[in-house]
Specification:
2 copies of one chain form a homodimer. Chain A is of the alpha+beta class. Helix content of chain A is about 15%, strand content about 35%. The longest helix of chain A has 10 residues. Chain A is globular, with a radius of gyration of 17 Å.
Chain lengths: ~140, ~140
């Protein structure tokens, strides 16, 4: 459906549910999802959604992912308070990636850092260049 | 290695090659890679790299991906001219995603659009909201 309609003019639209049925979920039923802070443009994290997580996100307006490590839906911030209010949801040309524009509450990363991309290549080193903005022990108490 | 060092202070660094050996490539030997325009913050596309693509990117300073459809290295822009000069390469907290800050020449998308995320959810429709900046026939002539 995405390929077939890629030469349409701006303004062309598809019924949402039918289009989402055509997303190219991988063998595990997942698509990668990029979360970007809507006003600053920071790329906060990459996570995964299955169809249920996508439906939950659309229904609630808050990002819900699929946790591959826990094998279940992960309503971002449910335990930590680090919620993501979704301002915009986009799908790419191949229908195999989602881009969210979000309002991130506090740190997006489980380490307490604002975003997850704190390892930067500098010459022949990989340098950790960002400090936590919150003590991670405060995010996941007990 | 990433998990083990996540509580280090800013400035801590790892030897690059040893750290890249610890990336969490998936069963196909790939990691997702987000390409972001370095100055505007636009998320241009998501593609995939294997270790060889990553090494090629670091060696040349131009983004090289692994094309899953063609089953080989894809030196972005080699045939179309849509190269991505890499300004920064980052790895995330889990070592399973790469973020590139790039200088994108022309459109990043094979459709001739600046970026690949031109399908936007609006109410119960998925709306194509961006026009090509270049005719795709000019990108892949013949």
């Amino acid at each position: 459906m995405f390929k077939r309609n890629e030469n349409r003019n701006a303004g062309y639209s598809l019924p949402l549910r039918a289009a989402l049925d055509e997303l190219a979920f991988n063998a595990e039923g997942l698509v990668p999802v990029i979360a970007q802070q809507h006003d600053t443009g920071e790329v906060l994290m990459l996570a995964w959604m299955n169809r249920a997580a996508l439906d939950d996100t659309l229904a609630t307006g808050r990002a819900c992912y699929y946790s591959r490590s826990r094998g279940k839906l992960w309503r971002k911030g449910e335990s930590s308070g680090q919620t993501q209010q979704v301002r915009e949801l986009r799908v790419d040309c191949d229908g195999d990636t989602v881009l969210l524009q979000v309002e991130q509450q506090g740190p997006a990363c489980h380490t307490g850092r604002r975003d997850c991309f704190y390892w930067k290549v500098e010459d022949n080193r990989l340098v950790l260049d960002r400090a936590p903005i919150v003590n991670p022990d405060e995010l996941y108490p007990g």
